[in-house]
Amino acid sequence: MTTINLKPDSLAFSLHGAAQAVAAVGRGVALPQALAQIFAQTHALPQARGAIQDLSYYSMRHIGRAESLLNAMTTKPTEPAVLHGLLCCALALVSDAQEGEPRYSDFTVVDQAVTAAAADPDMAHAKGMVNAVLRRFLRERDALMKSAAGKQFARWNYPDWWIDRMRSAYPETWQAILEAGNAAPPLTLRVNRRKTTVDDYLAMLAAQSVLATRVGADAVKLAQPTPVNLIPGFNEGLVSVQDAAAQLAAPLLDLRDGMRVLDACAAPGGKSGHILESADVELIALDNEARRVPRIAENLERLQLQAQLLTGDASSTDWWDGKPFDRILADVPCTASGIVRRHPDIRWLRRKGDTTQLAAISAKILDNLWQMLQADGKLLFVTCSLWPQESEAQAAAFAVRNNATRLPAPGQLLPTASADHDHDGLFYALFQKTVS
Ligand SMILES: C[S@@+](CC[C@H](N)C(=O)[O-])C[C@H]1O[C@@H](n2cnc3c(N)ncnc32)[C@H](O)[C@@H]1O
């Protein structure tokens, strides 16, 4: 990151950081990694980091519209990429006023965007252009917004192929699904039944004036986003951060004490923790990415729970000791199209062909795991995808290939946000190995 002279508590500073994050996503870097790099190179205090992060996520949620507006006002690509990012972040902010949630006055956004450009040697030459583009938007707002609303990627903030595919997979509900993916996600916690109960935890929150509601058997939604180390009881392992739909995995596994259980795609260990909170089982937690395995260890350590951690490929038997499992959780890699409200960059990073590629990998993983299952054992197949090729079609083809008995499970859960039900879009299919 270029060293710049901007006040860390200014909007110009946040705009400058967010512009770099948006530019990095344009180069194919995932937003969390982009932010980590930016934070590593700046010496911003936590509050300034929080502001950059908020603005980056906010901008990614509106980037389709912002790019469409920018394209309408420029005749050639805006370069360098950070300048493009700065204009998109500023346009995301000023164009939102139209929708009734202004966060800053138009004047402040224009002034601070020009200040950010002027402070950066890579953009200083273009500060007049930043001023001109943003002022033109303010003058011609109605016409420009009307034109942007006519383009589906600007209206919905997804790539065209994504919108077309959603419409064809869900002809009745595609608009609600796309809207749900643009909403800010809730902060949902899983209460650790080994340490407390949902009622006692809600009482503890109320005593500290923290507003929260129950959204599942063990799930509690906080009314306000809160850094994890400030969540009451988090450091003591009373709760973990986990979406309410993800909290269905452990109960579906129908666990009993003494079982041998495999979590085959385990990192960062969210579902592993829930499995161990639910019963005294022997858990093997496997992941093929060595750098992600320590995350499982960290999560289990905080919960004071233990598993055997392995780095290995779930589509191979190299790591297996040959002893069958009573239960297998296969939370396979997927496009993550069901969790885009938490990761608004994913839709822009994915390519159309990724689904076919990932579905082929998952099929291989599922077929391989099936042979490791005890007779009468159960395998739970999970994805956080909304694409049928990765979920229902995959489950149906797997059942036929392996003669697997399908047991009741939720199937495709669509992303939802209401007072009582607020969860991501996950898919669940449960299979039993019946012996004839
Ligand atoms: C959806 S995430 C799992 C989330 C995890 N179950 C949880 O609840 O925290 C998928 C994981 O699968 C891992 N993975 C991808 N391909 C794999 C493979 N062939 N074998 C094992 N793990 C794999 C990824 O590294 C990633 O950590």
Key terms:
7-stranded mixed sheet, 4-stranded antiparallel sheet, Alpha-Beta Plaits, 3 domains, Rossmann fold, 436 residues, alpha/beta
Question: What do these coordinates show?
Answer:
This protein is α/β, with parallel strands linked by helices. It contains 18 helices and 13 strands. A hairpin with a 4-residue loop joins strand 11 and strand 12. Helix 1 packs across helix 3, helix 10 packs across helix 11 and helix 17 packs parallel to helix 18. The model has no long low-confidence stretch (mean pLDDT 95). The chain binds S-adenosylmethionine.
Number of beta-strand segments? 13
CATH level 3 topology of the largest domain: Rossmann fold
Rg, Cα atoms, Å: 24 Å
Count up the domains: 3
- Cα(first) to Cα(last) distance is 63 Å
**Protein structure class:** alpha/beta
Binned, the helix content reads 40-55%
> Which small molecules are bound?
S-adenosylmethionine
Q: Give the class-level CATH name of the largest domain.
A: Alpha Beta
- Number of DSSP helical runs: 18
Short description:
This protein is α/β, with parallel strands linked by helices and 436 residues long. It contains 18 helices and 13 strands.
Helix/strand layout:
Blueprint: H1 11-26, H2 31-41, H3 46-61, H4 63-73, H5 81-96, H6 106-119, H7 127-139, H8 141-149, H9 152-156, H10 160-169, H11 174-182, E1 187-191, H12 198-207, E2 212-214, E3 219-222, E4 239-241, H13 249-252, E5 260-263, H14 270-278, E6 282-287, H15 293-303, E7 308-311, E8 325-331, H16 346-349, H17 354-370, E9 373-383, H18 392-402, E10 405-412, E11 416-417, E12 422-423, E13 427-432
Parallel strand pairs: 5-6, 5-8, 6-7, 8-9
Antiparallel strand pairs: 1-3, 1-4, 2-3, 9-13, 10-13, 11-12
The structure holds S-adenosylmethionine.
S-adenosylmethionine is lined by residues 246, 265-271, 286-289, 292, 313-315, 331, 333, 365.
